[in-house]
Specification:
This protein is α/β, with parallel strands linked by helices and 457 residues long. The protein folds into three domains: 74 residues; 194 residues, P-loop containing nucleotide triphosphate hydrolases (Rossmann fold, 3-Layer(aba) Sandwich), CATH 3.40.50; 105 residues. 51% of the residues lie in helices and 9% in strands. It is elongated and about 125 Å long.
């Protein structure tokens, strides 16, 4: 087989020689008036035929170079903007092409302004102002009972995952959006789709055809949360329209480990132009990120498993509060560090009080009767959540009894859902007797009401 490079060199040499002879012949014609068979050479048609033949070889060579040689490398020559770019511009274009996360890279390149945060003086005023803020929203005021507001704030201080459930139209999504407006960081809710089954449905995936990563709204917000200290509320709207244990599994496991180890894998390799916050293709889940999921319980949704309920804090919104009048309250810009600090100070004060000792004694009593009546108990995770929840709820303006009642009803007694109530009938009666004999009549109203509804079945 003849070496293709040698053929290229031979053709190039012949082209140069031919071009030189053609130019030389043309120069002679223009310089001298030569005669041929009684006339001037320039008047003869053969002269132009010779010139055409001389110059057709270089033209053919150019066509050969543009088509044949480029085809060998599978890079056909195309006349477009790139064809006329300078070397510097081509390098810049190549650099942009290699950025497989264009949106996240754009966030890296944005100029960031210094954020001035408002100080939280105390949690009670914070809750009262938030309730007033909701009630004075233009066009569509929202009315929530103060106990729901306290529970909402205390839940945020206890866990990174919250589930707001209840009847449709009771303001589950609205309270989450209102809180985003109140703290000065409004994010677009993530609408969960029925076919979602894996993490890529939330964070996106690498498209082999475009060589770009399909960046989702959630991924963008998670990345932004790494760049400032604001509170980021990620609303998972109708989280149980698909199985949360599938598409949210990676996040559930990450929320269980230390905050500096909560890495979510986005890609399984690294590239030089990847976003700055990536570490080996992973993104650290910011400690300032909270997930709030709304849940409707009907025939179109899936049941939420105990695995999810145990890790989440719960709010039941089954009715709207009675409208009331309040003065207009402006939004604030709240830093996560400030919110975390005031919640931690609540716990540190609480463990030095008699109420802390009383709470542990109540937990022990409840564990005994829960195990005796329903064969369930608190567990270590739930006990830790309760001890974090109570002091924050109290500092929000609530009482110890109300905090215990709220937590035990939503987190512990909920576990009897789905059990055989014909067999549990005696256990429910025994537990109600335990509440009546050991606590004041007005204590644990929610727990008593919750258990009594099963006796009427």
């Amino acid at each position: 087989m003849v070496n293709k490079t040698l053929i290229d060199k031979i053709i190039s040499a012949l082209m140069v020689i031919d071009l030189a002879l053609g130019l030389f012949f043309l120069a002679i014609l223009l310089t001298f008036s030569l005669e041929y068979e009684g006339g001037l050479v320039l008047d003869s048609p053969y002269t132009y035929i010779i010139l055409l033949l001389i110059f057709i070889i270089p033209i053919c060579y150019i066509i050969y170079y543009l088509i044949i040689i480029n085809t060998r490398h599978k890079k056909p020559f195309i006349f477009n903007r790139t064809s006329f770019l300078t070397v510097k511009e081509k390098k810049k274009d190549k650099k942009n092409e290699e950025q497989r996360f264009p949106s996240l890279s754009a966030i890296d390149n944005q100029e960031r302004k210094e954020v001035k945060y408002d100080k939280i003086t105390n949690l009670k005023d914070f809750c009262d102002d938030f309730q007033s803020f909701c009630a004075t929203i233009d066009k569509e005021p929202l009315y929530y009972d103060i106990s729901d507001i306290r529970s909402f704030v205390a839940n945020l201080g206890t866990s990174k995952l919250m589930i707001l459930q209840g009847m449709s139209g009771t303001g589950k999504t609205s309270i989450a959006i209102a809180f985003e407006k109140y703290i000065g960081n409004v994010l677009e809710p993530i609408a969960i789709q029925p076919m979602w089954k894996e993490k890529s449905d939330l964070v996106g995936y690498f498209n082999e055809f475009t060589k770009k990563f399909n960046e989702t709204l959630l991924l963008n917000e998670l990345y932004r949360s790494r760049l400032d200290n604001r509170i980021y509320i990620i609303i998972l709207d109708e989280l149980n329209i698909a199985r949360i244990e599938y598409y949210f599994a990676d996040f559930l496991s990450r929320l269980e480990v230390n905050e500096d180890q909560r890495y979510i894998e986005i890609v399984n390799d690294t590239r030089p132009n990847d976003p700055k916050e990536f570490v080996d293709g992973k993104l650290l889940l910011g400690k300032n990120v909270f997930f709030l999921g709304t849940a409707n319980n009907d025939e179109s949704t899936f049941a939420i498993s105990d695995k999810v309920y145990d890790r989440a804090m719960i709010i039941n919104l089954n009715k709207k509060a009675t409208p009331f009048k309040r003065n207009k309250v402006n939004s604030k810009i709240i830093s996560y560090n400030d919110f975390e600090s005031i919640c931690e100070s609540s716990y540190k004060k609480f463990i030095k009080t008699n109420e802390y000792i009383k709470t542990n004694q109540i937990i022990a009593k409840f564990n005994h009767y829960l195990n005796k009546c329903f064969n369930i108990n608190f567990g270590n995770r739930m006990s830790m959540q309760l001890l974090k929840y109570i002091p924050i709820y109290i500092d929000c303006g609530g009482s110890l009894d109300d905090a215990l009642d709220d937590f035990i009803t939503k987190k512990v007694l909920r576990k009897i859902e789905g059990m055989d109530f014909l067999r549990l009938n005696d256990g429910i009666k025994q537990f109600l007797d335990f509440l009546n004999d050991n606590f004041e009549e007005n204590s644990f109203k929610n727990a008593k009401k919750y258990l009594s509804k099963f006796l009427r079945r």
